Amino acid sequence: MTTAHHAPGETRPGGRTARTRKAVLAAVFQELEDGGFAGLTMEKVAQRAGIHVATLYRRWRSVEGLVCELLTELSSDVPLPDTGSLPGDLHALSRSIAAFYGEARMSCLIEAVVSAAARDPQTAAVLRAVFGERLTLAGRMVRRAVDRGELPADTDPEDVMSALGAPFCYRILIARRPVDRDLADSAATAVWAAARAGAYTRRSGGGPANDTPPGGS
Fold first, then answer.
1. What is the largest CA-CA distance in the chain?
2. DSSP 98-146
3. Percent of all residues in the chain with a pLDDT value above 70, rounded to a whole number
């Protein structure tokens, strides 16, 4: 994924500025791995990156700005597959997500951004933008599946992709356990079955697909 969402005040020119940015993001990633978000400071990042701390404050303003920039950068590391079928696409994407978050520092990064978003409106806006754009792009898989006749025509692509990502969020943020291939495969299988059954079709007025209550006839 290529995204245009930058940290506050950040641009992406080339030359020395690009090298500085690369060094800073590498330093943020390493600091998160070593000490987590609670131990992340502008001073530690500056020291590890070999730049003056004033540069960090001028371009990123805060540690929240730094972790948002890092998340934006790394979100492109999960490729969007095109296997020719939605089950294949869901399994391929889900396994890529599992591999992505299989690194301890990647789980630490998403924890840090979610924690920061709860306190900082700018971080929350970046978080929504990054994942919103990712959902939109991944929704292409669902639209292809609709075109192939694999899913109902009114299937909501973003609902499908949100459902695929939900187990990973729960595992990382709530259960606080490692993600693995078993989780990836079960998530993909469940979402495929639900999508085929019409669980993610758009409802006019937000109501159920029909008026029959659960267990009714």
1. 70
2. HHHHTSHHHHHHHHHHHHHHTT-HHHHHHHHHHHHHHHHHHHHHHHHHH
3. 86
Q: Are 185 and 84 in contact (CB under 8 A)?
A: no
d(CA 214, CA 121): 40
Residues 6+ apart with CB under 8 A from 17: 11
- Helix 63-74 to helix 104-117 angle (10° resolution) is 130
Token digits for 73?
């950068």
Asked whether the beta carbons of 142 and 155 are under 8 A apart, the reply is yes
**How many residues belong to the chain?**
217
Half-sphere exposure (Cβ direction) of 136: Cα atoms closer than 13 Å:
9
Per-residue confidence (pLDDT) for residue 129, from 0 to 100: 84
DSSP string, 11-56: ---STHHHHHHHHHHHHHHHHHHHHTGGG--HHHHHHHHTS-HHHH
In order, the DSSP letters of 39-50 are G--HHHHHHHHT
pTM: 0.75
